[in-house]
Amino acid sequence: LLDIYKSGCASLNMKHDAPVSKYYERLATVQARGSQASYQVLRDILRDVQNTMIPRTLLRDWALRTFPSPTDYWTFRKMLTLQLSLACFAEYVLHLTRLNPDMMYIHQDSGLLNVAYFKFDVDDSKGELDANRPVPFRLTPNLQELLTDIGVCGPLTASTIATARCLTHPNFKVQTILRAILRDEMIASHKKKQEDQADNVNTPPTDVPGELIITMVTRAVSAIIQRLNSLANFEGTDSKVSTLVAAAKSSDNLCRMDPAWHPWL
């Protein structure tokens, strides 16, 4: 995705990091006046970048150039929609690190999406999964434009719900699998915290207490299962996924993301 973005910027005769530079320049200007960067300021900066530098159609234009045949374009977009729904599901439910453009590899021949460097987003200071993020997953303006509103509200939302239900009905021992995976994550997180503390006081790190790890893992698994169940269970036509999609699309939330995440892409 980052290469597509770079080629799009090149076609606009612009450096790919120019929007990030502009973001910080605008922010510095505001702070130089002695005022705090409010949500309104961040929202204005994001809107300015979209209006003057990175259009919403950059990704869609690339797809149209790459797939001149309507059938190829439709097939690519459909597969990418389903693949992105899985990535969004995993990022939100499993509390994974934010999905940066340089982590997304899109296969042009199939629309398959490969994500590199995804890992659990563990807050080392607390030893807990970090659930505090402005957007639940990556559904930025250019992705919205490519998938279209129908694609987002239809296949993407539906497949996210279907995935959640597959993992909860019947119960495929998801909790047991998560415990095995998260155990290593929590041990590594705790050791890192100890090493940081040891560097400050020059004492060697001690072994990780078993009871503490069990508590940390149980807490993390509970957080994941809670999110999983919230997506799988819904009454009538209302689903938590629709709420999350709205939050991911909201410019109020996108503007609070790190510019290195490229919220305009």
UniProtKB/TrEMBL annotation:
One Pfam family in the UniProt entry: PI3_PI4_kinase
Superkingdom of source: Eukaryota
Residues in FATC domain copies: 233-265
GO cellular component labels: NuA4 histone acetyltransferase complex; nucleus; SAGA complex
PI3K/PI4K catalytic domain location: 1-232
InterPro entries: DDR_Repair_Kinase (IPR050517), FATC_dom (IPR003152), Kinase-like_dom_sf (IPR011009), PI3/4_kinase_cat_dom (IPR000403), PI3/4_kinase_cat_sf (IPR036940)
SUPFAM superfamilies per UniProt: Protein kinase-like (PK-like) (SSF56112)
Source organism of this protein record: Homalodisca liturata
Protein name: Uncharacterized protein
GO biological process: DNA repair; regulation of DNA-templated transcription
